[in-house]
Amino acid sequence: MMQLVGLAFLVLYAAGGWKFWKGFRRTNFTEGRLYLTLLWPVLVANKSYRKNFTKALKGR
User: Fold this and answer.
1) Closest by CA position to 43, among listed 34, 33, 53
2) Residue in 28, 26, 29, 31 with CA at minimum distance from that of residue 57
3) 24 in Cβ contact with 56 (< 8 Å)
4) Residue 29, phi-psi category: left (phi > 0), alpha (psi -120 to 50), beta (remainder)
5) What is the predicted pLDDT for the residue at 60?
6) Contact 53, 40 (CB under 8 A)
């Protein structure tokens, strides 16, 4: 059961990172693409980052 939860977390982490990476140009960020992509689960607690993360994912 724990392996399934771990796998699900890894898949969600990778999918969120991939979508952010692909939509990075839509954000207000100009630098730190790799850093911001790798740390997205932690940074999403920040309101400004969350707004840009949503823009990257949804295309707005």
Assistant:
1) 53
2) 26
3) yes
4) beta
5) 56
6) yes
Q: Which residues contact 34 (CB under 8 A, 6 or more apart)?
A: none
Contact present, 57 and 20 (Cβ < 8 Å): yes
Rounded alpha-carbon distances, angstroms, from residue 26 to 22, 31, 36, 60: 9, 13, 14, 7
pLDDT for 42 beyond 80 = yes
- The percent of the chain in helix, strand and coil, each rounded to the nearest 5, is 75, 0, 25
* DSSP state letter for 32: -
> pLDDT tens digits for 14-24?
999 999 999 99
| Residue matched to tokens 């969120």 | 16
